[in-house]
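Re: the request from the purification team.
They wanted to know what the chain is likely to look like in 3D before they choose a buffer screen. I agreed to run a prediction and write the result into the notebook, where they can find it.
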Amino acid sequence: VALKSNPPNEDQDSTKSVDGLSPVYETKQLIDQLIATECQKSRFNRGPFLAQLELLLQLNQNDIKIQEDGFTGASVVLLDYFKRFSSKGCCYDDMRTYLSLLNTQEQVELSQRAEEFVKENPVNYECEEGDTTQNIQNLYRHISLLRLQRCCGLHLSLTIAEKKSLVMECQKWFEDGLVFGLTLPSTVNQHSDVYILLAAHLMIEIYAETGEYSYLWDCAVMLESAQKQSCTNPQIQLLLIKIYGYLGPVELCTQLYNSLSIKHIQVDTLGYLTNRYIQAMGAFGFSGQLFRIALRFLSLVI
């Protein structure tokens, strides 16, 4: 829903109309009704709660001033959304769009309150079979928290020693979380994959700060080991391509790129992952292969 407002008069509230409620307040009333209906259910749909966040974002982007009465602050709405849906893998991706509504201090406070909530629901990796579902949800809550903290910049202030410690913790959480995916098909990602991805990004940051290639080699070994447990996770493969591009083994980049079965528009959107390393590594044979694939794709679309 896109909300636009005309420039208000100095003596008139921009959200009020002469005939009654403005579209802003009508929209809010509708969303409140939808949320009230959802709250009566045992399982919530995300739509009405996302609409509440989207309304606040549209008001902010269009510089529409509102009266405080009846409107909940963005930090409160985001925390409520986290508490309701952090057990879902999509929670962080939903929230990331709306974190711009908060300033830096508010983002830190949101992360702290979310951490307090997650600590109330710890993961029990040695749970009975009947408690597996609840503990998988708690695992996703913890993952949502870590991703939220990273997006809010909390990892930027960590020292190298603290980042190393967090990497080791992420590796342990990944390995412990594999117990919840023993019955998953080989084509499904493990529940704890995000831990190893976060660890990899932290190790790349440590390499960027120190310039020591040993961290990249350690990261590659870690990701290769994780790939054996989650062999179809494209994010692990894409990170390995990036790391091998830094290190130089072009044949491994080629194998990983081909294993992704990149085709059609993906040649244009993901081809840069290897194209940017071709000149530095002198991979002329592989470059010819990529150019022929790109030529076939472009011949069809032009």
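For the purification team: The radius of gyration is 24 Å.
Please add any questions underneath this entry.
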